[in-house]
């Protein structure tokens, strides 16, 4: 994922104002309040998560700039966080995200087979959205569920020790 792949179509100034509602600011402020006043940038990850959710699952460069301004930190530092962690998306995604862990424990426990299965059955490579727009498929780094590999994150729910058939059932249940 890189900023060079960020889409050209971005929320307009008006959309961004609508997005950065008082409610959203209040939620970000709740995270800022957890840290000393001079370290408000420590809230960058939850702030990005909240803004991404409010924007339908992805972050434009302009929204990252807004987060940087709100947290009084350099925009480049926000880009670094957003491009490093796999939970942030810099392009529009489907409503649902299916994220298969590709780190070592999961690789040794069959995540490569899961990834190949999804690619073959649903016609989508990691980083892409299915042709029918049903879900965006992602390969991600360790999900912190290594003891129960292979791990898959669907939306905000973790699923562990998944077989291809079990993953199919989850995908079929996506509305
Ligand atoms: S290696 Fe997959 S959850 Fe840690």
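Sequence proposed for the structure above (175 residues):
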């Amino acid at each position: 994922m890189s900023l060079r792949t960020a889409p050209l179509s971005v929320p307009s100034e008006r959309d961004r104002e609508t997005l950065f509602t008082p409610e959203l600011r209040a939620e970000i402020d709740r995270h800022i309040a957890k840290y000393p006043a001079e370290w408000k940038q420590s809230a960058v990850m939850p702030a990005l998560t909240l803004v991404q959710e409010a924007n339908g699952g992805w972050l434009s460069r302009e929204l990252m700039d807004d987060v940087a301004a709100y947290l009084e930190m350099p925009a480049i530092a926000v880009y670094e966080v957003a491009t490093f962690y796999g939970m942030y998306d810099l392009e529009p995604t489907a409503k649902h995200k299916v994220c298969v862990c590709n780190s070592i424990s999961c690789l040794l426990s069959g995540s490569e087979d899961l990834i190949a299965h999804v690619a073959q059955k649903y016609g989508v490579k990691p980083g892409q959205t299915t042709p029918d727009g049903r879900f965006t498929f992602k390969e991600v780094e360790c999900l912190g569920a290594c003891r129960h590999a292979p791990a898959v994150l669907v939306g905000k729910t973790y699923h562990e020790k998944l077989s291809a058939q079990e993953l199919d059932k989850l995908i079929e249940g996506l509305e």
